[in-house]
Amino acid sequence: MTSIAFIGLGNMGAPMCRHLIKAGHSVSGFDQSAEKRHALAEMGGRAADTLQDAVASAACVMTMLPTGRHVREVYEGPGGVLEHAPGGALLIDSSTIDVESARAVSTAAGAAGFTMVDAPVSGAVPAAEAGRLTFMVGGTAEGYARAVPVLEAMGHRFFHVGEIGAGQALKICNNMMTGISMVAISEVFTLAGQLGLDMKTVYDVMVGSSGNCWALEHYCPVPGPLPSSPANRDYAPGFTGHMMLKDMRLSQQAAANASAATPLAGAAAAVYQMLVANGHGDRDFSYVFKMISGR
């Protein structure tokens, strides 16, 4: 059993905590929302009133936060993790943030005597609920080896992808692919409908053909063909439009920094910007089909 402090108890953090508790770990959690802290207590964790209280006796600190700014504030800011966590604690950041922030926080953590890894996840809320996340871990071999016994409670695939920041880099590339794919799928189904094709038939043929991809197979944006997809729950989010726009913007920031040409990602980012601007950012990102199809 490991004493774990978990900072960020939102749509991803809460189910991750549930699996950590189920695996026998002792979890102290903090979130600015009192309601989310109460929910942690209901599932058997300890709700801390402050970040400092949460991390005071933790052997491992995990974070799942919205942006690089939040991550830097939680770790490096006054009263933050680096100031209050026990010396030698393992630090795991599973947020999806820019590579530069991940590297800066890790450098500060190392200078303060901590081992830190960036370990963003793939699978969104459904995989978090099922305990089947994929973790992309950046950091030293020692940090990866220390992190895996903790991550095993929440996931089923773990990859040591390189030095610190590499986890974030791979996550950005992965979500860039997913974001582009969903726009392409939405255009395809729009065309198929206008050509008079049956949506279920289109789905059944394509998932077994060269057009198949993860976004189609698991997140089909058209109501009907895939009962488990958000499209059949009025696009209740597994992964919101706001979050996809954030990740597409991260991809464009990374591309600019690396002088990489990503015209399709740039166009997809603009589509998600329109989705959010039209007031649909809280729906699942697959709602982009409704916008593209005019439905």
Short description:
The protein has 14 helices and 9 strands.
Describe what this molecule looks like in 3D:
With 295 residues, the protein is α/β, with parallel strands linked by helices. The chain is 51% helix and 14% strand. It contains 14 helices and 9 strands. It has helices at residues 13-22, 34-42, 51-55, 68-76, 81-84, 99-111, 124-130, 141-151, 166-194, 199-207, 214-219, 241-258, 263-277, 288-293; strands spanning 3-7, 26-30, 46-47, 60-63, 90-93, 115-118, 121-122, 133-138, 155-162. The strands form 2 sheets. Strands 3-2-1-4-5-6 form a 6-stranded parallel sheet, with helices on both faces. A 3-stranded mixed sheet has the order 7-8-9. Helix 9 (166-194) crosses helix 13 and helix 12 (241-258) runs antiparallel to helix 13 (263-277). The longest helix has 29 residues, at 166-194. The radius of gyration is 20 Å and the shape is globular. The chain starts with a strand and ends with a helix. The model has no long low-confidence stretch (mean pLDDT 96).
Shape: globular
pLDDT average, as an integer?
96
Report strand %: 5-15%
Order of helices and strands: EHEHEHEHHEHEEHEHEHHHHHH
Helix vs. strand class? alpha/beta
The total beta strand count reads 9
Task: Provide a count of the helices.
Answer: 14
Residues in helix, %: 40-55%
Q: What's the N-to-C terminus distance?
A: 51 Å
Give me the side-by-side strand order of the main sheet: 3-2-1-4-5-6
Low-confidence stretches: none
Report the major sheet: 6 strands, parallel
Give me the Rg, rounded.
20 Å
